[in-house]
Amino acid sequence: MIDLMWNFPLLEEQKGMWSRYLRAAMDAFEGESVESLRPSFRTAEPGLRERAAKWLGYAPERMWITCGGHHGTLNALMASGVAGERMAVEGTTYPGFLDQCRATKTEMVACAVDYDGLVPESLREVCKRGGVRGLFTMPTVQNPLGFVTPLARREQIVEIAREFELTIIEDDAYGFMEEHAPTSYAELAPERTFYVRGLAKSFAPGIRTGFLVAPESAAGAMASSLKCTATGTDVPANMAALTMCEDGTLERVMREKRSEGAIRNRAAREMLGDLCASGAQCAWHVWVRLPEGVHVDAIERACKEAGVMVSNGKWCAVAPEYGRGLRLALGGEVERERTLEGVRRVTVVLGRV
Predict the structure, then answer these.
(1) Same domain membership, residue 338 and residue 291
(2) Which of 172, 8, 169 is nearest to 74 (CA)?
């Protein structure tokens, strides 16, 4: 079965890379006193946060270490006070966050999207109805649609967020795929943005180090939320991850992934033609629009019968009308040829409808 469902871009040359960094970190950690085995917030956390802040270019007071990006979005939801309230989200978005909203009894309100991302007028209309406390958005190489929201539109959205006192949760899981991405919400609206970034996509899913940049005013809530959800983080693993970030290794891997992503993305689009939505050229996923009258479940079954796993758009949808499509992950398989063979089989299935 060819995997076009689980999107974890990996390069063959990454084999053994993480082991070397982790081994070096463990050797360094071995020299620490027994006190180093206490929860990280009582030991190494301040130093790790300073290193992360320097690497990402934010004030240390705003930087927090998480157990990956997924843990980051959950803590942003909790520490911001939006959990259990009403949250505006892009109508088609990351299903992991939708699950977090359901788990925390957070009501989701769908906003329209187009090729440039979240439509400001739709967000404003949602806010006018009342009760919306926050906005979850993936403005750079969005999952699953792949769009990159231009700076001018981001500025419009910030104006609306300030007008209606919205907290912004910005998920930057795939942002590294756009080399010259527009300014983040964390920079445009630092007083209200929780910015989340992990290493699962940019390096590997086994690396459970994540970064959360929060408003300085949320420091107390962040500390409490992180203690409640994880007590602490894995210090040697974070040491290894930060060394990899600092010495340029991660940047080199990301650059190579952008290069490989561009090849796979271009080839997939050539096969899919007009059915493929526009999106970032280096993205390791594409969104396939389905013709009217075609049921996404039937297409998913037909793809499986053809030996390909795909992501059903309904799992990414806040409301049914936003789920009419498939996400094809171009990073489920390490081999490019196997990935493109999967895309070819999907195009055959779509050609029959």
Answers:
(1) yes
(2) 169
Tokens 């995997």 identify what position?
A: 3
What's the pLDDT score for residue 240? Answer: 97
What whole-number distance in Å separates Cα of residue 89 and Cα of residue 135?
A: 6
Which residues span the domain enclosing 65? 33-246
**Residues 154 and 127: beta-carbon distance below 8 Å:** no
Instruction: Say what the alpha-carbon torsion angle 201, 346, 116, 182 is, to the nearest 10 degrees.
Output: 30
Domain CATH code at residue 155: 3.40.640.10
CB atoms within 10 A of CB 301: 13
Co-location of 101 and 115 in the same domain = yes
Please provide the average confidence, as pLDDT, over all residues in the chain: 96
Q: What residue type is 200 in one-letter code?
A: A
* Residue 23 is assigned to a structural domain of this protein: no
Whether 301 is covered by a domain: the verdict is yes
Tokens of 196: 């989340």
Locate 13 and state its tokens.
């040359």
Q: Say which residues have a Cβ less than 8 Å from residue 103's Cβ, sequence separation at least 6.
A: none
Strands 86-90 and 2-4: unpaired
CA distance 65 to 72: 8
Half-sphere exposure of 63 (CA within 13 A, CB side): 19
Please name which of 177, 217, 178, 176 lies closest in space to residue 194, comparing C-alpha atoms: 217
Closest CA to 276 of 83, 144, 175, 122: 144
Cβ-based neighbours of 277, under 8 Å, separated by 6 or more: 115, 145, 146, 286, 287, 288, 289, 325
Mean pLDDT of 122-133: 98
For 311, list phi and psi in degrees, rounded to 5. -95, 120
Give the CA dihedral 182, 187, 188, 190, nearest 10 degrees: 150
Give pLDDT tens digits for 44-82: 899 999 999 999 999 999 999 999 999 999 999 999 999
Domain count of the fold of the chain: 2
